[in-house]
Design goal:
Helix 5 links the parallel strand 3 and strand 4. Strands 1, 2, 3, 4, 5, 6, 7 and 8 form an eight-stranded mixed β-sheet that branches. The chain has 330 residues and is of the alpha/beta class. Among the domains are: 178 residues, Alpha-Beta Complex (2-enoyl-CoA Hydratase, Chain A, domain 1), CATH 3.90.226.10; 27 residues. It is flat, with a radius of gyration of 33 Å.
Length: 330
């Protein structure tokens, strides 16, 4: 009598073996992820622990040892890039450097080196006013502005507070003016069939909206605002440059309306126009004008240790969150 083999038991055995292998593989992957997460967290903790002494080190005290020398020096503060509240050339950074430079007993003179296209008139005004105040408080410490590649608009606003201004023959100087620019998309919206829904409380609250047509009265108002700021700029330049040009018998140069038209000139041309006193670099001014060849930089730089700590903490939090999410899903 013929009998058929019992294949169901074989199938169950194979299925059971495959299930066990699959679960064993999943369990092994989970264990690996847990250990990997553990070692990642451990690595971040280790990095944080070894960096903690650096974060708490008194860097001012460390570097102040170089200030104990009795040699007189020229203090240098750099204005680099756009002048705005959230940049390295912010008023807070520049003013902090200026105050430290003037307070230092070995400072014989101060150079504010400018390479800037301008920026916020408010930030530039803060720096200008503080330079004037410090010059009055420390009358024996002269201040010189040295323009490098570009000293325009707000950059020149700051330079005008110095006793004298020096530049390279190819430096771009000027742009004494004020601007406000934007775009208008009214016609483009009509072509696209887009309806603008602007709701305001106040008759002129939306007058700068780029999606609404400009009204003539709004244009007149904006121009009046710009003209007012421009007149403030002109007054600052004339007040700042008057003493230097009077000593040279060239104060009448400030009556030239072309100076305040927004145009720019080279360093050589700026000398003839009365915007610059002479040609020279920072080392030249320190050596030949201030007579203190040694230059000490008081420019306030970003605290990279604080940034490192912040990024380290953010990275740790992000990594832990990702790992927790992956563990939760599986």
């Amino acid at each position: 009598m013929l009998t058929t083999p019992d294949t169901s038991s074989n199938d169950n055995w194979e299925r059971d073996t495959l299930n066990r292998l699959a679960f064993a593989t999943l369990n092994e992957q989970r264990r690996n992820r847990r250990w990997r997460t553990f070692f990642i967290v451990l690595s971040f903790v280790y990095l944080f622990l070894i960096s903690w002494p650096l974060l708490n080190m008194n860097w001012d005290a460390l570097f102040s040892a170089t200030e104990l020398s009795s040699d007189k020096h020229t203090a240098l503060i750099e204005v680099q890039g756009i002048i705005a509240s959230d940049t390295e050339a912010s008023a807070d950074n520049i003013i902090e450097g200026l105050r430290k430079a003037f307070k230092n007993d070995d400072t014989k003179g101060v150079i504010i080196r400018i390479n800037s296209p301008g920026g916020s008139p408010v930030q530039a005004g803060y720096i200008y006013d503080e330079m004037k105040r410090l010059r009055q408080k420390y009358p024996d410490i002269p201040v010189y502005a040295v323009a490098t590649d570009l000293c325009a608009s707000g950059g020149y606003y700051i330079a005008a507070a110095a006793d004298e201004i020096y530049a390279d023959k190819a430096t771009i100087v000027g742009s004494i003016g004020v601007l406000m620019n934007s775009f208008g998309f009214v016609d483009a919206m009509e072509m696209l069939g887009v309806e603008r829904r602007l709701m305001t409380a106040g008759e002129h609250k939306g007058f700068l909206d780029p999606f609404s047509p400009m009204k003539n009265e709004d244009v007149i108002h904006v121009k009046n605002v710009l003209n007012d700021i421009h007149q403030q700029f002109i007054k600052v330049v004339k007040t700042g440059r008057e003493k230097s040009l009077t000593a040279k018998g060239k104060v009448t140069l400030l009556d030239n309306p072309k100076l305040f038209s927004g145009l720019v000139w080279t360093g050589e041309q700026a000398i003839e126009l009365g915007l610059v006193d002479g040609l020279g670099s920072s080392s030249y001014v320190a050596r030949e004008i201030i007579k203190a060849e040694k230059i000490k930089n008081f420019t306030q730089k970003p605290n990279y240790l604080d940034r490192f700590a912040e990024r380290l903490g953010a990275t740790m939090a992000q990594t832990l969150q990702l790992k927790l999410n992956s563990l939760t899903i599986q």
